[in-house]
Each structure stands twice: as C-alpha cells, then as structure tokens.
Amino acid sequence: MKTRPLFDEAALAKRIKELGDQITADYAGEPVLVVSVLKGAFMFTADLIRQIKVPVEIDFIGLASYDGTQSTGQVRITSDLSTKIEGRNVLIVEDIVDTGKTLDFLRDMFNLRNPRSLKICALLSKPECHEMKSPVDYTGFEITREFVIGYGLDLDQRYRELPYIAQVLNLD
Ligand code: 5GP
To answer: What is the pLDDT of residue 74?
Structure first.
C-alpha cells in the first residue's frame, strides 16, 4: 500500500488545542457530555477532552457504516450510550464527515432523546462529499475526497494506531 502523510503529530496537536479553546469559550463553564463515536474517534476524543476546560463527562457510541474504502450508506449501532442525555449539553465527536449520513442518523436519534443542546465536532471533513441536512459545528481540517487512515481511522480495521493521518494512494 502506498500512502502520503497529511497531518503529522504536531499539526494535529496544534489544531486540537485550537478546537479545545473554542469549545471551552463556547460552553462558558457549563458542563458537557462528550460522546465519542467509536471506533474512529477514540484517539481524537482522548486528545480533545484534555484541551477542553469545562467539566467533561465522556460516553461512547459504537457505529459501523463503512466496508473497506466505500461508503455503504448504511449506519448501524454496535453499542449504545450508557448515559441518559436528556437535558444535557451533548457534544458528538466524530473522526470524519464524508457524506454526513452518519451524522444525520446520530443527530436524529439524539434529538429524540431531548438533549439541552447538541453540537458536533469532527476532526476531518470532506465538503465535496457532503449530503447532510445541517452543518458541523467544529471542524479540525477540511480535505478532498481522498481516503485517509491513522490516528484512529482504519482501513479494514488496520492502521488505527498510527500517530499521524495519511492519505491512501493505492492499495497494492
Ligand atoms: P459518512 O456517513 O459521513 O458518509 O461516513 C462517515 C464515516 O465513514 C466516518 O465516521 C468513518 O468511519 C468513515 N469514513 C469516511 N471517510 C473515511 C476515510 O477517508 N477514511 C476512513 N478510515 N474512514 C472514513
């Protein structure tokens, strides 16, 4: 497989600090329940919450939507939240927004549970591919249609452990 590095550890740390500062300012001392979307967002979430200076609780939701490098358009829950979100400020943390179908699905599902507020933070976003109903509140980096791996993002469950994000150039 051929890859090209896109965002190294320093670039990720710098941008995540900026996102944390922005989130800290916006929540202005109010507590926030951070919901990390597994598996892809686990590493980003761990770094992001260390840069958020308001009281944070953390929960996880397991979703699967991709098979290989192709979007199937189908989202399914592999494990649900362990916390009630009613009346709480909820910040969903996603690894990457491609079509945005996953986010639409999550937003609709979460809104049925009546949170006090609901915002989305995604490390990466592919604006050219977006088909979703409403925008993302916090975005780390915008990229084109390329398929990326590392820093939590996988290719058939591999490469999540890479400390940087790389573009997959070819699979040979
Ligand atoms: P969407 O529903 O927005 O089309 O797809 C979002 C999900 O697809 C992401 O949470 C992620 O799991 C997966 N995905 C989308 N683009 C990429 C990519 O470039 N690399 C990897 N590893 N996963 C991706």
So the answer is: 76
**What integer pLDDT is reported at residue 171 of this predicted model?**
85
* Mutation pick for ligand 1 pocket among 7, 71, 156, 169 (CB with most ligand atoms within 8 Å): 71
What residue segments make up the domains of the chain, in order of their start? 2-170
Nearest to 14 by CA among 55, 56, 47: 47
Ligand 1 nearest atom to the CA of residue 99, by list position: 4
pLDDT of residue 67: 60
Sheet containing 117-125: which strands, arranged edge to edge? 70-79, 56-67, 32-38, 89-97, 117-125, 138-142
pTM tops 0.85, yes or no: yes
Q: DSSP letters along 62-126, please?
A: EEEEEETTEEEEEEEEEE--SS--TTSEEEEEEEEESSSHHHHHHHHHHHTT--SEEEEEEEEE-
Q: What is the pLDDT of residues 55-87, one digit of tens each?
A: 999 999 998 765 656 666 678 889 999 999 999
Whether residue 98 lies in the annotated active site: yes
Q: What is the pLDDT of residues 150-161, one digit of tens each?
A: 999 999 999 999
CATH topology of domain 2-170: Rossmann fold (3.40.50)
Q: Residue with the nearest Cα to atom 17 of ligand 1? A: 147
Distance between CA atoms of residues 24 and 51, nearest Å: 8
